[in-house]
Design a protein that fits this description.
Largest sheet: 7 strands, mixed
Oligomer: single chain
Strand content: 25-35%
Shape: globular
């Protein structure tokens, strides 16, 4: 079976801070998950909404401590902790944007480095504003919930 090079998934794009003893800690509390296209061959991530490129940091404990920690520069944001695309809802526009990004990656079309275009403060302000707009536009949808041996439509 052929391994897919690209994964559409949810990631946190956040900076790391240095604690005592040079311990690196990602600032995960302030930065929400973003729908992204992850290029596993290049270890880069493209944010679907902004089309900005970020480096991916593998965060398994041993690998992160020895190899990945060397890649982290102060003040830069990195993509971490991928979740499957099914964890959060995505609308058709976001899926179509992800397809465009995959096409662009396949055709070696470049993307803007997200760390060069916005500071961490500007980035956080921008994505929090997007989150507020998204919450206001949220539409009630029907979901099916499995209960016992039958499906029951439940509205939220």
């Amino acid at each position: 079976m052929k391994e897919n090079r690209y994964i559409v998934c949810w990631l946190q794009i956040c900076p790391f801070e240095r604690l005592e003893g040079s311990i690196l800690k990602p600032n995960r509390d302030d930065y929400p998950y973003r729908l992204c296209v992850f290029d596993k061959n290049e270890d880069i991530v493209i944010d679907v909404k902004t089309h900005h490129k970020y480096n991916y940091i593998h965060t398994s404990l041993v690998y992160f401590m020895h190899e990945e920690a060397k890649k982290i520069e102060d003040g830069k944001r990195y993509a971490i902790n991928e979740l499957p695309s099914s964890v959060f809802l995505a609308d058709e526009d976001e899926i179509e944007e992800a397809r465009k990004i995959i096409y662009m990656l396949d055709n070696n079309i470049g993307f803007v480095d997200g760390n060069k275009s916005l500071s961490n403060e500007q980035y956080l302000e921008r994505i929090l504003e997007e989150e507020k707009k998204k919450i206001k536009k949220k539409v009630k949808r029907g979901y099916y919930e499995y209960k016992g041996n039958y499906n029951q439509k439940k509205k939220w």
